[in-house]
Amino acid sequence: MAYLELNNIYKTYGQDEHATEVLSNINLSIYEGEFVAIVGFTGSGKTTLVNLINGLLEPTSGEVLFKGEPVQGTSHERGVIFQNYSLLPWLTVGQNVFMAVKEAFPKKSKNELNAIVAEYVEMVSLTPAINKRPKELSGGMRQRVAVARALAMKPEMIIMDEPLGALDALTRGNLQDEILNIWGKEKRTALLITNDVDEGIYMADRIIPLRPGPNATLGPEFKIDIERPRDKTEMNDNANFKKTRNAIIEYLMDIGNERKLEASEEFILPDLSPKDFVNQFK
Amino acid sequence: MKQSITLGKVTKFMGLGFLSTLKDLFTGKLEKEDFINFLRKVVVPLASVLLFIGLWHMGSQSLYNIEAEFKIEKALNDQGPAAAEAMRECIASGDVSCKPNTLPSPAQVWDSYKSLLRDHNIISADKAAFIEKTAALNEKRIAEGKDAITYTGRPSFVDQIFRSLKTVFAGFLLALVIAVPLGIFIGLSPTLKSSFNWFIQIFKPVSPVVWYLLVFMIVKTLLIDSNEDSSFTISFISVGLCSMWATLVNTAMGVSSVDKDYINVAKVLKLGPFQKIFKVVLPSSLPLIFTGLKITLSVAWMVLIAIELLAQSPGLGLFVWEEFQNGANDSNAKIIVAMFVIGIIGFLLDRLMLTIQNWVSFDKTDAI
């Protein structure tokens, strides 16, 4: 049985004639221990999809099942890493993580909680910055805090909403490795939302493209049969990688072209030509 | 070296950054490129102060002449040339009986300031002597279960300042205690918001005088049995009610406009309602709450004068009113002294709030 299941999900914003259907007919199954990536254009409804899964939003119709139970509201079992870090700026790194841990394990003593905080801050190698506030950190460091906060709650499933979207390529690569490391160690189910096909191929077991909204729906899935641990440099020469990458990009390009064709309105340009100044001065 | 850094930081923190520039001038640490900055921050304000005093002096001089000439003219028309000549001599001699009473010059105000201080010293000495004289008697009276004899002489100008400060802080605390919790509730609940909205919109623009009258009606009845002077109670409640609106509106706005990301975090972490309010909503709306409190304190100080005047509650407002009624030859100068004292204390209160705001708030906003 699937660990997380989305059955015929529709989501509309607004009502009656103002309604826009953002997601339509979304079906998705994720199995335990799997790493799934959903790839899509910006504005295709990815964040809405994530919020449906983590319980911040409710679908207009259809059901989200987590371990066979319908999702009602948020839960500590599903940890979320937000796109824009969402750290509380008035708390230090340690306090941000501590707040999450305290909510997740209300019965543990303060010392135990502090030990968990220290462990996860160390895991994202931010121990020297544990008493700093988010404002004093770089973008990459902030995102690592967000990762530590989500993981320290020991969720059974990690949902990542474009977690590395705002970072530079180098930091991005490092953090991808860190997340994979942690995922490999604790073998949790993971769902990654991204707009970067390479990132998806590097990290996930399966990639599912999201056709852009309105009326966004999921496309056919692509299996990534590259053995772990994956090596970025070697992967570039891997025939399998090339094939999958090309297939996904082709699919996404086709969608893009389809969209262009849909915009069939014609714009007539005025018939103008530059004045002939040269002759005027003669 | 280290000390100068901390001083610079402290003054900047309190919104008094110009002090550190002044200090750099005396320690000779000013770099050449700082010179323009120095001109702008120290020389220009000083020059404008001098210009202001100069204009004031000239203005008061010309007002003095207008009134003097009018007096002489009047004496000429009413009583003839001899009386006019006598009036001219009288004015020139600076005699109190015929001195024109108009806007005082800066020098007169300064003299009045010094005379008020002298007056304060005399009264304090008198008070100390009185306490010493009655100490033994008071001990005896207390032992017998009677009330101690207290000094009932005239309060000095400095005493009035402290009484005003006491009233304004009592009023400010009242505003804080009412407006911040109410603002939080209104901000959290759209139902409460719509039920309080008309109330806020209607009562916010009501004038301090009317608030005073309203509070007077209520407190007078409530304290009908009491023989004690209720003017302090009435004035601090009026000050609080007058000034609390800025805090109420700002708190409600701050609480209702918390960044959606933070609310999402609170939801994902499944924080309880109390945790959510104290760990997420309040910290994130603190900057706005403090902006409201800052406005409240300055409004409180502003309306205090009018309310003290009406309530006959001792303080600077009453001082101003009594001097105006008094009409002595230095009354106008004393009123101007009070005006400057009120302005300077208002400025210091504002800086005090800014310091507290910078201290508690995560968002270190610059001085406005």
From TrEMBL, chain A:
Keywords: ATP-binding, Nucleotide-binding, Transport. InterPro entries: AAA+_ATPase (IPR003593), ABC_transporter-like_ATP-bd (IPR003439), ABC_transporter-like_CS (IPR017871), ABC_transporter_ATP-bind (IPR050166), P-loop_NTPase (IPR027417). SUPFAM superfamilies: P-loop containing nucleoside triphosphate hydrolases. Gene3D superfamilies: P-loop containing nucleotide triphosphate hydrolases. Residues 4-237 form the ABC transporter domain. One of its GO terms (molecular function) is ATP binding. This is ABC transporter ATP-binding protein. It comes from Flaviramulus multivorans. The lineage of its organism: Bacteria, Pseudomonadati, Bacteroidota, Flavobacteriia, Flavobacteriales.
UniProtKB/TrEMBL annotation, chain B:
Keywords: Cell membrane, Membrane, Transmembrane, Transmembrane helix, Transport. It is a multi-pass membrane protein. The chain crosses the membrane at residues 168-188, 232-253, 286-311, 331-349. It is found in: Cell membrane. Residues 161-353 form the ABC transmembrane type-1 domain. Belongs to the binding-protein-dependent transport system permease family. SUPFAM superfamilies: MetI-like. Pfam families: BPD_transp_1 (PF00528). InterPro entries: MetI-like (IPR000515), MetI-like_sf (IPR035906). It comes from Flaviramulus multivorans. Its main location: membrane. This is ABC transporter permease.
